[in-house]
Write a structure and sequence with these properties.
Length: about 150
């Protein structure tokens, strides 16, 4: 009888775990946006336009494009969480993108063609929280790594 030694599972750094978790949440949100019941007024969903009245959880305005963006952010999170540097990049750059999206949502007229994603007030404030949260995670969870590299 032979015994096979298992290779130890690679351990994820905290920044990798955070990026993985954020990526999974984005995937779940992207999928949920396509589920009637979780998304109210599902029958009014459009590919991309402010005319879509579909709302995730009855609160966040969504469209097919909006859901696809969430899915893409989720896939990016899973892929980039494989390395500490990729995970930090995902959290920082993703947070910056969400801050730009928050600003965009704050300055456009929500009833105009410029609101093609589409966005509503609830989306805007969620995007602010996501942007700040992702950047904070990147900063806090990579701080020790930068210090360790510069002192080595």
């Amino acid at each position: 009888m032979s015994t096979h030694a298992r290779a130890p599972r690679p351990t994820r750094t905290p920044v990798q775990q955070a990026a993985l978790l954020v990526g999974v949440v984005f995937l779940l949100v992207g999928v949920a946006g396509f589920i009637p019941g979780i998304t109210t007024h599902y029958d009014t969903m459009e590919f991309a336009a402010h005319h879509s009245e579909a709302e995730l959880l009855g609160l966040f305005q969504v469209s097919v494009l909006h859901n696809l963006v969430h899915l893409a952010f989720g896939v990016a999170g899973l892929a980039l969480s494989r390395t500490p540097s990729g995970a930090g990049l995902y959290l920082f750059a993703g947070g910056a993108i969400y801050l730009v999206l928050w600003l965009y949502g704050m300055v456009i007229d929500h009833d105009s063609a410029a609101n093609f994603v589409p966005l509503n007030t609830a989306d805007n404030w969620l995007h602010l929280a996501l942007g700040l949260g992702m950047i904070a995670l990147a900063a806090l969870l990579t701080r020790g790594r930068r210090t360790a590299r510069t002192t080595a």
